[in-house]
Amino acid sequence: xxxxxxxxxxxxxxxxxxxxxxxxxxxxxxxxxxxxxxxxxxxxxxxxxxxxxxxxxxxxxxxxxxxxxxxxxxxxxxxxxxxxxxxxxxxxxxxxxxxxxxxxxxxxxxxxxxxxxxxxxxxxxxxxxxxxxxxxxxxxxxxxxxxxxxxxxxxxxxxxxxxxxxxxxxxxxxxxxxxxxxxxxxxxxxxxxxxxxxxxxxxxxxxxxxxxxxxx
Length: 216
Hints:
The structure is a single chain. By secondary structure, the protein is of the alpha/beta class. The chain contains four helices and eight strands. It has helices at 4-16, 56-68, 114-126, 152-161, and strands at residues 22-26, 47-52, 73-78, 96-102, 112-113, 130-135, 139-142, 145-148. The chain has a five-stranded parallel beta sheet with strand order 1-2-3-4-6. Strands 5-7-8 form a three-stranded mixed beta sheet. Helix 2 (56-68) links the parallel strand 2 and strand 3.
């Protein structure tokens, strides 16, 4: 509710930039239908809605709401991943295009288990849905052993696990401000630096900003 005063302005920015992809993430999908802008129709091609599903209870609560909403692109973020989640019942709808997964990074972080990640990944792969293992979190359990990981080690180990899966590409039909399709050769092409090769988020990342930190 605190965001409602500036929500119209945010929608207007998205409407004015049909050449840019907008990734929306919410824990409150029950509020979305009442907050959509005029002229939304069945959704805008450049906007993707994602819901967080940190455990099975939240998945069963939020995913049905997600599937009922008028969006062209939909995804799930299992983060912080604090309990096993199965989305097998929802994948046949064909609406879920991407699933992101990450452990917990806060003080007192709860453990994320390899078996949970592997099971979720296998469900996505069976339906050719992209699965991105972004990071292990601070406490990662595999083969009965708990690993305590900090900083970039979390995403590096997620990449090293090989659990991410690149499924069917998401087709964002981006246009210019006049509504004409943007030719493929004119679309933004992400740049990835040397450190990106070891990052678990690469599959879904918009690329390196070339801030120079890698060179320090």
